[in-house]
Design brief:
mainly alpha, 242 residues, 8 helices
């Protein structure tokens, strides 16, 4: 996929179609998910209306992990094969992943205050997700701190690949450390989802909608970064000829 899209014309053609498609799908799905989640789904027996925070919290958590996995994978491709598109992808994903990871923690704190009576506890899931956010921020800071572009890209790629170790820790922290504040998997289970269909529908709509939203933002940032690099190279070429 990276090899095919490495050609600027191919990527431009793909992005020109994919960006508006992802944007429209994200808008429609999120609006539908919010309407179903806020107005059509029932109140939870134990948590009342606060259960509706789940429709933002869970998709944000999913994307916080998925985007880091994508960033780590792109960083691996760049580090091994020096694929410039992979580096652009990783750099474009980082701030978007940080936003979703932060949204997960913020919405989780709001949910925790009403459910547990506290904004924060050093639960294994919460702590590992905080580390996930710090890894995103560390990647961004490391790239910004090194002036030489290739050295910055390689150093940040190493950090991104090392940070992949944290993904299974976040995913399985509840099972490994017997978390009492977070429950195990309720959607992707071998015996089927453990939540009612009235809650599963808005959760699915929001999850897919957030995924298309993330795709829209990543592709938009990638396209902007490629155009910026092209303009910079043209400017350098003109200065060299002058």
């Amino acid at each position: 996929m990276f090899s095919y899209l490495a050609n600027p014309q191919r990527f431009e053609k793909f992005a020109r179609i994919a960006i508006p498609v992802c944007g429209v799908l994200a808008l429609c799905l999120i609006i539908a998910g919010l309407w179903v989640g806020l107005f059509a789904s029932p109140v939870d027996r134990y948590q009342g209306d606060t259960i509706r925070i789940m429709y933002v919290h869970v998709p944000a958590a999913w994307l916080g992990l998925a985007l880091y996995f994508a960033m780590g994978g792109a960083s691996f491709v760049y580090f091994i094969w020096r694929h410039n598109l992979a580096d652009v992808a990783a750099a474009s994903i980082a701030p978007i992943g940080a936003v979703f990871a932060a949204l997960c923690l913020i919405s989780g704190s709001l949910w925790g205050k009403t459910t547990w009576g506290t904004w924060w506890v050093w639960d294994a899931r919460l702590t590992s997700m905080l580390i996930q956010l710090l890894l995103f921020l560390g990647y961004i800071a490391l790239r910004a701190a090194i002036e030489e572009e290739r050295l910055a890209a390689r150093s940040a790629a190493i950090l991104a690949m090392v940070g992949l170790v944290n993904l299974p820790i976040v995913r399985f922290s509840v099972e490994w450390w017997d978390g009492i504040l977070h429950q195990g998997a309720t959607v992707f289970r071998a015996d089927g989802p453990a939540i009612h269909g009235s809650q599963l529908l808005p959760l699915a709509l929001m999850g897919i909608g957030f995924t298309f939203l993330a795709g829209w933002m990543v592709l938009y940032r990638m396209r902007s970064a490629i155009l910026t690099r092209k303009a910079t190279n043209l400017q350098r070429l003109r200065e060299a000829r002058a």
